Amino acid sequence: MVVSAKSSPLSELRIALPSLPLRLQEVGRFVAANDYDATTRSMRDLAAEAGADPAAFTRLAKAIGYSGWDALRAALTEARRPSPASPFSGRARSRREGPNADVALITDKLEAEAAGLPRISAHAIADAARALHDAKRIWIAGYRSCRSVAELLNYELRLFRPEQVQLVGVSGPEDLDLGAFRPGEAVIVIGFMPYTNASVRVAQAAYGAGATLIAVADSIAAPMAEGADHVLLFEAASSPGFFPSLTGALAIAQSLAAVTFSLGGTAAKKRLEETEARLAAASTYVAEKG
Amino acid sequence: MVVSAKSSPLSELRIALPSLPLRLQEVGRFVAANDYDATTRSMRDLAAEAGADPAAFTRLAKAIGYSGWDALRAALTEARRPSPASPFSGRARSRREGPNADVALITDKLEAEAAGLPRISAHAIADAARALHDAKRIWIAGYRSCRSVAELLNYELRLFRPEQVQLVGVSGPEDLDLGAFRPGEAVIVIGFMPYTNASVRVAQAAYGAGATLIAVADSIAAPMAEGADHVLLFEAASSPGFFPSLTGALAIAQSLAAVTFSLGGTAAKKRLEETEARLAAASTYVAEKG
DNA sequence: TGATTCGTGCAACAAATGTTTCATGGTCGT
DNA sequence: ACGACCATGAAACATTTGTTGCACGAATCA
């Protein structure tokens, strides 16, 4: 018989399900409901949990067209594989010409970036913020496009902890700063692929000095994440376009600053108010209108 | 030493990585980079792909505190297990006190920012990008926290138009730049409430000189938007927290750069490739591994 | 330099895996 | 009611799994 539906192993299973023997339906439903366990745990394990015979799983796989349970599991595994290299979720980008091509590009970019933000780990940020709160001193490093993120973080943190926060390499030779890292201090390194040598050097110096290392990167495998106490991941390549996206990194930086401020309590609030008062006195800002 | 982060097996791995033997570092990096395969495929399979000895995986697991590879894999599997559902879509977060208050704050912030991005007008950005493409010269101004966005935009635009893009006030007194604006040039001013006097002065100088003024702001009523040829709006106050959010402004800047690059066609592409080749020759980046 | 420790690959091991076979019990058709 | 057929569970099968003992080589320290 020629079966058409070749979409996903799970839908193949669902389609074939009603025409299967009773016991095979049971295990079939179990697999469909626990497909993550199906890809990770062993057949006998699943059988024990489903209260079925191990052989039933092999028979199920063969019944829906696979050579055996291994083949079915391989298909399920591939179906579940996270897609690092598929930036475009549903959307067959038509890359059409015309005046609307640019608008479509922008819309896609914004949507992709919006989708990437909720995937940032709030727990990791909260932990890192606690480390920042405890740090006697905070160093921040970012190069090339990441420098902008580093500078924002530096700016916001300095609003309420002015003399304890410093960008690496701005007030003199960079090596001077690298040698100044101490235990009890925190070093934040921001970077994504391709990684600059400078950022890796900062991370290694921080690790070597025993300082708390916080890496903001696009991959857990980033070289500056090695030995880091905290790694905050964002998706740099998620959005279409030619340059990697920094939206995620910036969102992390802002959240980090916000939570650190929150942890600072009334003392931090007081410092912030002082800073704002000073800026207002220097008439930095345009006077507000009614 | 007090080790806090017991969170994920991946971070345990990362922390222990630098103190491990050479070969174990290799497989450790491989596992970190391919953790999904690590949970699904067999140890020997991974060893073959990583070009390492199977025994190295067992030793790695034991080196970071697990009883064996199976235990490590089980931990990775649990870490990767999909959350049963996401009941948080409608955000009925209880904003309770305690250790989770920070996490809730971050999650709210990220969600709000993600929601704000699609509200950015793609049409306005496309129009502004066309103006940038036509400009003989591009000036960029941003102060205080907006400086980071200005610098990123400057950086990305200079990747393919190096001698026509310039930040206002970095190469000498700012007034010098303000007097240099000419018709046919474009001036981008980034700012939100409260508005700095400096940014307003730049906008007025641009308007007075007959240059194309592009304002990136949080409101159509922003003073630097007066007389602007293009106004690109983002939501600075949309997210909870103490500092206004720059995510929207950054997204606008990135889209602006991407579309301008796209309009530049092959010439822009050629310039970008030249720049990248130069950076690679200067060994700015860490060499990629196979 | 010599002794020792440590890291590493290879090969053999026991345990666990998926598969197959076989015997049993039930169902359907004639 | 008898035989053919099929679903089902248990046990035996060959493979593959993760692990460990062992030998060799490099680095370390006296």
TrEMBL record, chains A, B:
Q: Which UniProt keywords apply?
A: DNA-binding, Transcription, Transcription regulation
The cross-references to Pfam families, in alphabetical order and at most eight, read: SIS
> Species name for this entry?
Bradyrhizobium campsiandrae
Q: Entry's SUPFAM superfamilies?
A: Homeodomain-like, SIS domain
Q: Which residues cross the membrane?
A: none
InterPro entries membership: Homeodomain-like_sf (IPR009057), HTH_RpiR (IPR000281), RpiR-like (IPR047640), RpiR-like_SIS (IPR035472), SIS_dom (IPR001347), SIS_dom_sf (IPR046348), WH-like_DNA-bd_sf (IPR036388)
Q: Where is the SIS domain?
A: 128-271
Spell out the protein name for this chain: MurR/RpiR family transcriptional regulator
